[in-house]
Amino acid sequence: MSKSFERYQRRKLISSYFSVALSIGLVLFLLGILGLLVINTKKLADHFKEQIAITVFLKDSAKPVEVDQLQKSLAMADYTKSALYVSKEEAAEQHSEDIGENFMDFLGYNPLKNSIDVNLKADFVSTDQIEAIARDLEEKGYVEEVSYDKPLIALLTDNVKRISFWILVASAVFTFIAFLLINSSIRLSIYSKRFIIKTMQMVGATKRFIRRPFIWTNIKLGMLGAALALLALGVVLYYVNENFPELGLFNDTVILAILFVGVFVLGVIISLISTYFATQRFLNLRTDDLYY
């Protein structure tokens, strides 16, 4: 009978530990996902910004050497990600494919201009900076016009700022919620041992002596939960990178390492703090209050 009871107690204890570790792991996993989102917010924003291009239309009188020099200077400029020359013939062919018919058959000539499509680096995609670049280019005598989607750029800039702000707010709120959830799991685990704590205290054990095994046990559970969270996070990260390689999630290995270490350390710290205060609460309770 005693052996059966001991096995039952052992299974119950293992189940309790597993529940705590799993709860910690799930919360830290969600926190890690949010951390990845925060880290890659700028990268995603930069990806969309760099899809925006300004088009430099050239006059028909522009000399080939002038066009070549302009393309090279644009390609070497600090604000340029890529600069592609598009002849009026190539533009007409592309336009005909887009509309499904050859518009030059009706007009009898090609009204399009030679142009250079310039994709800017993300840091330079703002209304003020693009206006300054456009003014500088339009001062050149062989440039007909500089065209870009001003409303789209303004909308993208505003939305990126707004989204970044709310992601940071959500991160702060979720970190607080994560602390509360892990704290609740550990408190429930220690609550089931409140009579053991009080019994040890009544036979003369010091508070420090009583706290030590609980803290060490829950730190190990926090480490286990963090390891589970990091394993799941690594799987998600690998899957996303395989399906969306253009995001380059593994390019910033140092930042990813900091995130993983941060999640692990956070799991340990929250477990330590929660266990300390949970045990301290029951140590300070009177024996009669343990039943409520």
Overview in brief:
By secondary structure, the chain is an alpha+beta fold. It is built from 9 helices and 4 strands.
H and E order: HEHEHHEHEHHHH
What is the C-alpha radius of gyration, as a whole number of Å? 32 Å
Q: Please indicate the count of domains.
A: 2
Poorly predicted runs: none
**What is the straight-line distance between the termini?**
31 Å
**Global morphology:** rod-shaped
Treating each run of at least 4 consecutive H or I residues as one helix, how many helices? 9
Strand arrangement across the biggest beta sheet:
2-3-1-4
Tell me what portion of residues adopts beta-strand conformation: 5-15%
Number of strands: 4
Give the helix level as a range of percent. Answer: over 70%
Largest sheet: 4 strands, antiparallel
Task: Give the rounded overall mean pLDDT.
Answer: 79
What structural class do the secondary elements suggest?
alpha+beta
